[in-house]
Amino acid sequence: MSILRKSSKKTSARKQIDIRGVQDSILLLRRNEYRVVLEVSSLNFELKSEDEQDVLIDTYESFLNSLPCQVQILVRIRELDMSKYITDLKGRLKNETEDIYKEQLSNYSEFVGELVADNRILSRRFYIVIPYGAKNNDFATAKEQLAIHADIVSKGLLRMGMHSRRLGDLELLNLFYEFYNPTQAKLQPIRDSVLTLISSSFVKGERS
After folding, report:
1. What is the 3-state secondary structure (H, E, C) of the chain?
2. Cα end-to-end span (Å), the chain
3. Of 48, 52, 46, 22, nearest to 36 (Cα)?
4. Cβ contact 2:33 at 8 Å
5. Which domain does 140 fall in, by range?
6. Most exposed among 17, 82, 119, 171, judged by the fewest C-beta atoms under 10 Å?
7. Under 8 Å CB-to-CB from 94, ≥6 apart: which residues?
8. Over the chain, what is the mean pLDDT?
9. Which residue, 81, 74, 80, is CA-closest to 176?
């Protein structure tokens, strides 16, 4: 089941998303479906030697065979706003008193400015979505099974030299908030103070 469902009809973001809330780092979907999201580090396959590549391919095959369930792989590509970083560099340059460091900061600041002017600076983040479907609204069982599945996936990734971590409640909400409100998310990301309010809103929407 896809978390994000496209529709030709105009509809609200809430109706397009199956998410009805978050609890204990778990996405609560409709129809007793649950999801855990792992953020995964990357590795550069092309920089590996031929022998290392062969080992990685074999390990990846074993990883796929060991999966306890079907998973989704999400690649998130975002354009980075470098304006604050450049402003900070200029501030450091202004306050620097040592000539040698001042020259280095000046050269580096100029380099970054030219790089940003001529290129889009992109960040890539990788996620694995782990599903679980319950026969009834048994959150305790879903939580236990998802923890087991996430542990199996994490250990399989680690054997390939890839580290993973589980997204928390706030990170899960921000992930989907940024999909549907990319501009607003840069100016006003979701904070801890509104986490309970948003979660409650999803649940109320499901019950209404």
Report:
1. CCCECCCCCCCCHHHHECEEEEECCEEEECCCEEEEEEEECCCCHHHCCHHHHHHHHHHHHHHHHHCCCCCEEEEEEEECCCHHHHHHHHHHHHHCCCHHHHHHHHHHHHHHHHHHHHCCCEEEEEEEEEEEECCCCCHHHHHHHHHHHHHHHHHHHHCCCCCEEECCHHHHHHHHHHHHCHHHHHHCCCCHHHHHHHHHHHHHHHHC
2. 23
3. 22
4. no
5. 18-80+125-207
6. 119
7. none
8. 82
9. 74
Q: Where a domain ends, among 118, 143, 177?
A: 118
Give tens-digit pLDDT for 11-56: 555 566 677 888 899 999 988 899 999 999 999 999 999 999 999 9
Can you give the CATH number for the domain in which 188 is found? Answer: 3.30.70
Same domain as 147, residue 64: yes
- Residues 22 and 150: their CA atoms lie apart, in Å, by 17
Residue type, 51: D
Residue given tokens 């479906």 in the structure block: 33
Residue 116, pLDDT above cutoff 60: yes
Per the CB < 8 A criterion, the answer to whether 144 and 132 are in contact is: no
pTM of this structure: 0.72
**Res 91 pLDDT > 70:** yes
- Out of 95, 118, 141, a domain closes at 118
Q: Is residue 9 assigned to a domain?
A: no
> pLDDT tens digits, residue range 148-179?
999 999 999 999 999 999 999 989 888 887 77
